[in-house]
Design brief:
The complex is a heterodimer. By secondary structure, chain A is an alpha+beta fold. Chain A is built from 7 helices and 4 strands, in the order ααααβααβββα. In chain A, a hairpin with a 2-residue loop joins strand 3 and strand 4. In chain B, strands 6-5-11-8-9 form a 5-stranded mixed β-sheet. In chain B, strands 3-2-1-4 form a 4-stranded parallel β-sheet, sandwiched between helices. Chain B is globular, with a radius of gyration of 22 Å. In chain B, 57% of the residues are buried. The chains are: A alpha+beta, B alpha/beta.
């Protein structure tokens, strides 16, 4: 993502400090590595006329914002009680076994990582994983196998940056 | 006319599926009649209608909307803000998502009525980060309303009716559902709660008087103004009017979103084919967690004659809360379940006040110890004390709610806790505090 593209997002929100969450979330979603790097934090601070510390205060407080590079596909698993007792462990155990990495660790090829998050409001579709804004519902080990194969084959281009819902 | 046991808030969902942001279609289906009614009846009368409706806040706290609106109406100050809380974060709840996705104009109309009522110029809707994809729909609905002269300058051609709505994205913090934390977050700060009082109706967003209501509450406003407060109240019970969106999850057959009249028998909700359809696992339901993680737990076999109404649940120490209904069968141990709940609170505590920051973690550690059957005599008293202290000493609703699931679950199934204690070990004697 180029600096110009980041500035374009900031400008669309009129460099309004009130819009810092919208700005950071949009930039992160469109960035290749899925996180707010220091260069971006500096840029946002400068454009909104706030300190870089303030930007990092925001980034570190809100769970969706990340300070470190993420895998291309971050599989989010709901670990709240409605999901946890309705099949969620099937997914987390399967992923741990098949990907061979622990929670929040990237696979060596940089393609996958998974972690638990609190409710995403898809409680009636459990067990599921969520990747970016997309929920993949009612999973079984077979469906998971296919989903991972599809992701490796690049069947879901919309999950790799590109999507943009920015207001006027 | 409002009919009983018929959809009210979800009435347009099916008809508007192709384009829920279409203002002309929305108007054909009763849309913006609520706003017209308010302009017609006047601001004072609108407050009376809201009182008559007995609309209790749908975010979870069940604060009477009429009282909240009257407080703001009487608050001093020219500039007032309208805020819609769409930070739906209670696990097991997805009804605000459904409203924003399937009838965004109803939420916008409700917020616009509030804008008119309080002569506000700016409204905000805070949509949680996990629902980021809904921003496009909501922004389109806002754009269409502007184009139709229903937002922006001179709404409906009225010289002094200038009002618009801005969308703010959340970014994954349950505590931002707390109304003062929400306002801090809208101001571009970390979303930690403020010390209250002052009430937000006096000192709110940017220190100005502010109305904060839930998405479902705002969606109810046009119905109340269009049909009258009494008609809305008659859908429910004397203790709370209207219908309620509920989210059935866990071990019921038909998980999902439903709209029920307040006062519907809970048995119907859990077991009738129209709603939950009974257990999905073949095992009997053991307990029901109401209203989100911050709500209380009830034993399924003690709720046969319970009505799903504010007052009936209250007499049983339960509450409607957000509308979440999580049903668990008898394979789920209460200690395991509460450990999951405690994990959530420990994760979501914002860290501002000590009892919640440290206490939620201590509760989680104790429960994990109980899961391992490694409790020692005295631990149960420590658990009770810890939960009580966190509940009584925390600064905001997050910590104050921890006691509800913990103590209700503990009281319902004390035997399961006792089984977690190794009674042969030395008793842990806590220093009194």
């Amino acid at each position: 993502m180029t600096t110009e593209e980041k500035i374009a997002i900031i400008d669309r929100y009129h460099s309004n400090p009130e819009q810092i969450l919208n700005i950071l979330v949009d930039i992160q979603f469109q960035s290749e590595a899925g996180y707010i790097d220091q260069q971006t934090a500096q840029l946002v601070a400068e454009k909104l006329d706030i300190s870089e510390t303030r930007v990092y205060e925001i980034v570190s407080f809100y769970a969706i914002l990340k300070e470190t590079p993420q895998a291309r596909y971050v599989l989010k698993i709901c670990d709240s009680s409605p999901c946890h007792f309705s099949g969620e462990p099937v997914v987390s155990q399967w992923l741990q076994e098949k990907l061979g990495v622990g929670e929040n660790q990237m696979t060596q090829d940089g393609l996958f990582m998974y972690h638990g998050i609190p409710c995403v409001g898809a409680c009636a579709q459990t067990p599921f994983v969520k990747i970016k804004g997309e929920v993949f519902p009612h999973l079984t080990p077979e469906k998971l196998e296919k989903l991972l194969a599809d992701l490796k084959a690049g069947y879901y281009p919309e999950l790799v940056g590109g999507e943009s819902h920015v207001e006027a | 006319m409002l009919k009983r046991n018929a959809p009210v808030l979800t009435a347009r969902f099916e008809a508007m599926r192709d384009d829920p942001t279409d203002v002309a279609h929305y108007r054909q289906l009763g849309g913006y009649e609520g706003l017209a009614s308010v302009i017609d009846m006047g601001r004072e009368q609108a407050l009376d209608e809201l009182d008559a409706a007995a609309l209790l806040g749908r975010g979870g706290a069940a604060y009477p909307a009429g009282r909240k609106w009257r407080h703001l109406y009487n608050a001093a100050g020219e500039t007032k803000y309208i805020v819609c809380n769409g930070d739906e974060g209670e696990p097991g709840t997805f009804k605000d998502k459904a409203l924003v996705e399937s009838d965004p104009l109803a939420v916008i109309e409700g917020m616009t009525i509030a804008g008119y009522e309080f002569k506000a110029q700016q409204g905000y809707i805070y949509i949680r980060g996990e629902y980021r994809h809904l921003r496009a729909i909501f922004n389109q609905a806002l754009e269409n309303a502007r184009a139709a002269g229903l937002l922006g300058d001179h709404i409906l051609g009225m010289a002094d009716f200038n009002y618009d709505i801005r969308v703010i994205s959340g970014a994954g913090a349950y505590v931002c559902g707390e109304s003062s934390a929400l306002l801090n977050s809208i101001e571009g700060k970390t979303g930690r709660p403020r010390v209250k009082p002052p009430h937000l109706a006096d000192v709110g967003l940017y220190l100005k008087p502010t109305l904060v209501n839930n998405v479902e509450s705002y969606a109810s406003i046009p119905v109340i103004m269009r049909e009258g407060g009494q008609a809305f109240r008659h859908l429910g019970t004397p203790g709370g009017g209207g219908t309620k969106l509920i989210c059935l999850t866990g071990h019921v057959k038909n998980r999902g979103l439903y709209e029920v009249d307040l006062g519907t028998p809970l048995e119907d909700i859990l077991y009738s084919e129209k709603f939950g359809g009974g257990s999905s696992t073949g095992r009997p339901l053991k307990f029901i967690h109401f209203g989100g993680q911050s709500g209380s737990i009830g034993a399924a076999d003690q709720l046969h004659d319970c009505l799903y109404s504010y007052e009936d649940l209250k007499t049983r120490g339960l509450a409607i809360g957000s509308g979440a209904i999580v049903a668990m069968d008898d394979s789920v141990g209460i200690v395991d379940y509460l450990t999951s709940v405690a994990n959530f609170f420990a994760h979501e505590s914002c860290g501002k006040c000590t009892p919640c920051r440290i206490g939620t973690l201590r509760i989680l550690e104790l429960l994990e110890k109980f899961q391992q059957k490694a409790g020692v005599p005295g631990d149960l008293a420590v658990f009770e004390n810890m939960v009580t202290h966190v509940t009584q000493l925390s600064a905001c609703g997050l910590g104050q709610s921890v006691g509800k699931p913990m103590l209700s679950g503990y009281e319902l199934f004390p035997e399961e806790f006792k089984q977690a204690i190794n009674w042969q070990t030395v008793e842990r004697k806590e220093v009194a505090w």
